[in-house]
Amino acid sequence: MKKVLEGSMAISESVRIAEPRVISAYPITPQTHIVEHLSQMVADGNLKAEFVMVESEHTAASVCLGASACGVRSYTSTASQGLLYMSEVIYNIAGMRLPVVITIANRAVSAPINIWNDMQDSMALRDAGAIQLYAENNQEAYDMHIQAYKIAENKDVMLPVMVCVDGFVLTHTFEVVETIDEVERVREYLPPLNMEYKLDVDNPYSFGTLGEPSVYMESRFNLANAVNNSKKVIVSAAQEYKDMFGKFHGALIDTYKTDDAETIIVAMGSILGTIKDVVDELRESGKKIGVLKVRSFRPFPEEEIVAALEDAGNVIVIEKAISLGKGGILSQEIRDVLYKHRINSINVNGYVLGLGGRDITPKNIIDLIEKAKTDENMDGEFFGLNSFIEQGNISNIGD
Amino acid sequence: MIKTKFDYNKYLRQNTLPHIWCPGCGDGIILKSLIRAIDKLQIKKDDIVIASGIGCASRLPGYVDFNTIHTTHGRALTFAIGIKMFKPRLKVITISGDGDALAIGGNHFIHAARRNIDITLIVFNNYTYGMTGGQYSPTQPIGSYATTTPYGNIEPPFDVCDLAKAAGATWVARSTSYHALQLDKLIEAAITHQGFSVLDVITNCHISYGRRNKMKSPVEMITYQKEKGIPVRSAENLKPEELTGRFKTGLIYQKNDAPEFCAEYQKKLELLKTK
Ligand SMILES: Cc1ncc(C[n+]2csc(CCOP(=O)(O)OP(=O)(O)O)c2C)c(N)n1
Ligand code: SF4
């Protein structure tokens, strides 16, 4: 059914229909609405789950770890400092190969404290062994959560999945979202969780036991393989979803007007909508430009990205995160896979925009495309700074 | 501008005002009380450190012209401990909401108390997570409502003062944003005390808490504080059942001769130097 839903509500609707049995979360803006809706659903009897109230994100993730280890579908969501605080547990969830789904309402990190959107939080957790998917709009956020469980619970995967949605830009805006109303159809797509290894008194296992030097590397090797091998599962989950529910937003990546493109803009998340509008406009005036959307950042879709970019002359990476001391994260990785495939004819320019909720307007993107014409190999250059910083006069910031 | 008897301006950072608190929030009353108490004690502004976590209450340090640090949610006391250990001569005051101090940061609360470190903790206790829109907190009374307890809370709350005392704090008191004059005196005494002092201030958040609990205006909340607060001494004459739903105000516990952490640490250092 088509409904006008706030992003947070679309996500909670999608989680509800995926039928987790344990939900635990701690409030943090801009994620709070999601779990508030879920707690109301549980309280009203519209979702048969335990809603476990806790005193921190660390606990919330730990509750999900425990529930998941018992073979129960579980869910949590967080953002920013909450995710950083959860990080210890997320590494453990991944290491124990537990299929917890976690929504990240992407938000900047402290200090200074800032509640607005960027992707520094989830990008900081890129090496944890969790799958990371990024949604472009609320319809995709809705569909992605159901797919996330399908991917996480695949027995060749068995990993946590972080579904990343831009805080405020998606979580707090209303869009038309088509929801699936028959639980039965979702169950057909996503059968009840049936874990091979779980805490079971009749068949005891031990999770997280000391991994001595003689076995630790092997356990990480298996984890690394699981993350890499999840690529095909992400693809099939998207395909099957399309076949059953008619919605498709790309699998590992998606391309937009890239076939003959000389310039391709690469990005993740909600900013893609604005970029596509700009691209439409530029196409009208004859410019050969297209967009590559990275939907799965972990695992990193190497082959797919190379195939999409190899014929372009210029690549512009727009990202809302940075690896301090190195540069753009997405741009680095794109350059890396192109290098690996011996493609050195492409000029990759990476820019960091929109940190801490700074608006990225169509004009910014047009200016950036213009700038990139003369730039070479920019590695996460900050774009759109206020002029007082450019003059080197930071004393104007106040205290 | 109307000239008031007391000039708060010399303690306020004009460039960070106006504050973000909702009109009618109790936090501003505590802020002014804190300023009056510090002024009374005549402590140099530069000798005061205010540390806070995250939350509505924790915004306070941004507005006052002392050495201030606004940290991460739940950790205010740990930053404060680091500061105090490095510069024990400074007066270190920590501001936390009830969530900050007792939910996500509860662990630090009991350990700071156990060590009896010379820090003053003022808990802005509004029974809720004000900043994130009114989720239940560990001080929320049984039966009351929050966004996460839509059918009423079933979890028993912490009594901040009992917990502080049991964990080892050597000065424990409670006041409210209604009892502003008492509050001035208690803040003064808390800062003066040598050891870990905990002041539980019941404050009003009509926006995130009151609206859900039949107290939608600040007036109703202030009235609640006035009616439910009972001076420690009067409480002594009441039976336990007469105290249900009420809370004691005033100085609840004080122990003066307990070893203070920084002093003990210094002693140990001196001793080791002689060896
Ligand atoms: C690690 C982390 N988790 C969650 C949050 C979101 N958050 C900000 S303030 C707050 C609760 C505030 O409640 P309280 O401490 O009682 O202070 P009040 O706002 O009521 O003054 C929460 C959960 C955060 N900033 N950091
Ligand atoms: S939400 Fe509550 S605690 Fe926060 S400023 Fe408003 S009234 Fe005060």
What does this structure look like?
The complex is a heterodimer of chains A (399) and B (275). Chain A is 41% helix and 18% strand. Chain A has 13 helices and 15 strands. A 7-stranded mixed β-sheet of chain A has the order 3-2-4-5-7-6-12, sandwiched between helices. Chain A has a 6-stranded mixed β-sheet with strand order 9-11-10-13-14-15, sandwiched between helices. Chain A has a two-stranded antiparallel ribbon with strand order 1-8. The longest helix of chain A has 33 residues, at 213-245. With 275 residues, chain B is of the alpha/beta class. Chain B has one domain: Rossmann fold. An 8-stranded mixed β-sheet of chain B has the order 2-1-3-4-8-7-10-9, with helices on both faces. Chain B has a two-stranded antiparallel sheet with strand order 5-6. In chain B, α6 (180-192) links the parallel β7 and β8. In chain B, α1 crosses α6 (180-192) and α4 packs across α5 (160-167). The chains are: A alpha/beta (399), B alpha/beta (275). Chain A binds chain B through residues 26-29, 32, 36, 39-40, 43, 53, 55-56, 81, 110-111, 113, 398-399, and chain B through 13, 15-16, 54, 70-74, 103-104, 106, 129, 131-133, 135-136, 138, 147-151, 155. Bound molecules: thiamine diphosphate and iron/sulfur cluster. Iron/sulfur cluster binds at residues 21-22, 25, 27, 56, 126, 130-131, 205-208 of chain B.
